[in-house]
Prior knowledge:
Blueprint: E1 11-15, H1 23-35, E2 40-44, E3 48-51, E4 56-59, E5 61-64, E6 76-80, E7 82-85, E8 98-102, H2 110-116, E9 124-128, E10 136-139, E11 145-151, E12 159-162, E13 168-173, E14 182-185, E15 191-195, E16 213-217, H3 223-234, E17 240-244, E18 252-255, E19 261-265, E20 274-279, E21 285-289, E22 293-298, E23 304-308, E24 330-336, H4 337-341, E25 362-369, E26 374-379, H5 381-393
Parallel strand pairs: 1-2, 2-6, 5-7, 6-8, 8-9, 9-11, 10-12, 11-13, 12-14, 13-15, 15-16, 16-17, 17-19, 18-20, 19-21, 20-22, 21-23, 23-24, 24-25
Antiparallel strand pairs: 3-4, 25-26
Amino acid sequence: MLHYQGAVISSVRVNFPLGDQHSDVIGRLISQGIAKGAKRIELLLSHRIEDIGIFMNIYKQEFSFTLLSNADSLMYLHLQGCRIVTPTDFSGLKNLRTLVLHLVDVKYDMLQDLFSNSNIHLVDFTLNKCTFFYDLKIISTTLSHLNIVNCMVYTHEDINIIAPNLLSFEYTANSARRGHPLNIKAHMLSQFSYRGTEISTSVGFSGLKNVTTIVLYKLKECLQTRVLPLLFKECIQLKEVTIQKCRSIREVKITNPKLRHLKIIDCGIELPPYKITIEALNLSSFEYSGQRWIFHVTAPSLLKVFWNAAVSAKNRYSLGPIPTLQHIQNLAMITSHSQVRNSPVVGLKSEYAGFFPSDLKYVELHGCVPEDGLQAPTVIGLNVILFMKDLKMK
């Protein structure tokens, strides 16, 4: 247990355009915070850009870990816009658990020295818009959560991860470019999120065998032929899948007996309706938002459905597979006013009583108002819900 005399500083945050000429000021601020037992330090520096014609020179202030040699109380460190220098004999940061590097030049030996240091036991590590021109190696026995976000691919820099206790990993490729090839060895990894143009060749799924939750965002490669077959073949423990804003999605078949939660959000483009087939015996919740699709769903355990058909006013398939799902108990729907007017429910005709599953316990219906330019959803469900209850009582 660390004890400090007098007043204690719990957090130090520097967010100011300081340059090299102010390095002594930064040093004094950090030293003062460390002396008073600071647990959190955020050093957010502004880099200087010099236009020299075709190229741009970016000058970042140097920051030496020597300043943190006695920072045994420090648990959270966020460094932005600087060049980090790590002395070979560095032995501080014994209690550091979270490290965030933003707009930082990552040198070849920096991470190796950091993770090989027996005194440092990182749990959370983030690289955000960082620069490196070589294969990156992240080897750690203590790391639980890893985020690599918007780091540019320059040639063919691989990212190699060996982390036996890693639980979650989020990767976001820089802009619309291809992401880094990822080699993952983390048998405890259960949550994986990937945002990029393609995943089947640069990442694959062989290192994700024990992943239970996966998010695929903005993929442009064909899901049916290149992604989904590999996903469900390699990730044998999958229970929750989210597919969001992926472009090349047409005829799709999702078959997985262990899948419990599925989200398909704003995928594809507005073309003639294609078919999505879902065969998931243990699926308990399903969320869909998007264009016109024809659904065939076999999911006897499905209890909860969120359905957004108001993405396009031309979407005639506003009800999707809902009339065929007889066991759902919780239903939320968003439809446009034109879809509501054409819906049999609004007509309050008793012959459509079978439209609602007999086990339904909770319903929430929202209608959008695109005709007069207002985009805010308005609740339209009260009369319909009362009508449904009346039908059930008869």
